[in-house]
């Protein structure tokens, strides 16, 4: 059963390359929440890089970022960064950037507040 779940995660990760599949996944009511819950480092049965990849493909959407943060992704990702999971740091930075940095346009340029 563990091998099947890992193969399914890998397949879903590959399917997320296509924008149409990402759109379908975003519309699924519990898709993002379920993927975030599978990031839990206490579940050591399968490789987390596939779940990180799935969420990383959705991080460009503000709505998806909000869902990830609300589901506790930052806590799980910090733990995954500590154990050096591929892509976790970049995803954590992408989620954190949206919360902590406000960017305003000033005279044609940008300034960080």
Model description:
The structure is a single chain. Helices cover 62% and strands 7% of the residues. It is mainly α. It has one domain (2-112). A two-stranded antiparallel ribbon has the order 1-2. A hairpin with a 2-residue loop joins β1 (103-106) and β2. α1 (2-15) packs parallel to α4 (49-56) and α6 crosses α7. The longest helix is centred in the N-terminal third of the chain and has 14 residues, at 2-15. The protein is globular and about 30 Å long.
Keywords:
113 residues; mainly alpha
Query: Biggest sheet, in brief?
Result: 2 strands, antiparallel
Mean of residue pLDDT values:
82
User: What is the SS-derived class?
Assistant: mainly alpha
- Global morphology: globular
Give the helix level as a range of percent: 55-70%
List the helices and strands and how they pair.
Elements: H1 2-15, H2 19-27, H3 31-37, H4 49-56, H5 62-70, H6 73-82, H7 88-100, E1 103-106, E2 109-112
Antiparallel strand pairs: 1-2
Helix pairs in contact: 1-4, 6-7
How is this structure best summarized?
With 113 residues, the chain is mainly alpha-helical. It has helices at 2-15, 19-27, 31-37, 49-56, 62-70, 73-82, 88-100, and strands at residues 103-106, 109-112. The protein has one domain.
């Amino acid at each position: 059963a563990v091998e099947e779940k890992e193969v399914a995660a890998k397949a879903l990760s590959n399917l997320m390359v296509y924008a149409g599949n990402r759109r379908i996944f975003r519309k699924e009511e519990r898709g993002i929440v379920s993927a975030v819950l599978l990031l839990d480092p206490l579940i050591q049965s399968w490789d987390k890089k596939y779940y990180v990849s799935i969420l990383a493909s959705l991080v460009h959407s503000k709505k998806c970022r909000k869902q990830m943060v609300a589901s506790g992704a930052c806590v799980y990702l910090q733990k995954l960064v500590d154990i050096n999971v591929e892509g976790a740091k970049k995803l954590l930075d992408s989620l954190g950037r949206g919360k902590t940095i406000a960017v305003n346009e000033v005279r044609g340029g940008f300034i960080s507040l």
